[in-house]
Specification:
By secondary structure, the protein is an alpha/beta fold. The chain is built from 4 helices and 5 strands; from the N terminus they run E-H-E-E-H-E-H-E-H. The two termini are 18 Å apart. Pfam families: Flavodoxin_NdrI.
Length: 127
């Protein structure tokens, strides 16, 4: 499954580079034309970046799941962009990680992406 990302400070890109998965920035596309997982940073008091909001306004119908980075210093607003996007687009939160993520985060994220992609493929076969 396509993984698209936004990374203001580089933490999301650094995290994804450790996963061994294929990914590309949302800035490389005007809009998505197939299902994708979004991985984004969180800004301010738990918001998604404007670039993500604008991209999803054009491509949200293809969004299948979301993951977000954040800083635990923000307490309840940690990686809250995932909560906002999930609620707005009615998709599951795949994962939340702090800053550039830990080795454990990378492993867990890969497993969740794999399981999610398998379920999505099975759903297509059953239709």
């Amino acid at each position: 499954m396509l993984i698209l990302y936004e990374s203001m400070t580089g933490n999301v890109k650094r995290f994804l580079s450790k996963t061994g998965l294929t990914y590309q920035p949302i800035s490389s596309l005007d809009q998505a034309d197939r299902p994708f997982i979004l991985v984004t940073n969180t800004i301010g008091f738990g918001d998604a970046p404007d670039s993500v909001k604008q991209f999803l306004a054009r491509s949200g119908r293809f969004l299948r799941a979301v993951a977000a980075s954040g800083n635990r210093n923000w307490g309840r607003n940690f990686a809250h962009a995932a909560d906002v996007i999930a609620a707005t687009y009615h998709v599951p939160i795949l994962y939340k990680f702090e800053l550039g993520g830990t080795v454990s985060d990378v492993i867990n994220f890969r497993e969740r992406v794999s399981a999610f992609a398998e379920r999505s493929d099975q759903a297509k076969v059953l239709r």
